[in-house]
Amino acid sequence: MEVGSVCERIIVALLIYKFGEANVETEIPITEPEVDAKLFEEPVSIKTITGKSFSGVKLIWTVDAQKAEEFRKNFCPHCDILLVQINWNSTGGFYYIPLAVQKRLFDEIGGENYIKLPKAGTKPRGVEITQEALTSLVEDKESKGIVINWNNIKTEFNSFKRWVDLWRED
Known about the structure:
Helix content: 25-40%
Order of helices and strands: HEEEEHEEHEEHEH
Strand order of the largest sheet: 1-2-3-5-6-9
Distance between the termini: 33 Å
Strand content: 25-35%
Number of domains: 1
CATH class: Alpha Beta
Oligomer: single chain
């Protein structure tokens, strides 16, 4: 979950850079379901995945099987999605999936086919959108996307040194 929060902050920073600080609301509680920011006063959910397939995207973080089942029973998409697919040393993308596209697909295939619950007896990290549903959303004619070539450049970085240096500043 924490790694996802860092990735979301990078994408939100891109939105601020592109659209201006006045048009991006960032003071969204981390406990707010789905919503990571507001862009032009509209809520957006930011999702990131690594790899070639559209799988593993969490809708909610929970390890409780009962809460997961309850979530699926009550879920309905309620904001646009910005999806970033990172595929190092290959191509991935940046996708905009409108709320209307999500609602249409959800209504067509139902919650059972849209939402993947964690397997019982495992140590799940959360409830996911199914690979099939996410692929359909990305490929929908109303969704938008740009291809990104992800080049992995090794960077020497010591986060502890950075923060120690910042603490030393007056």
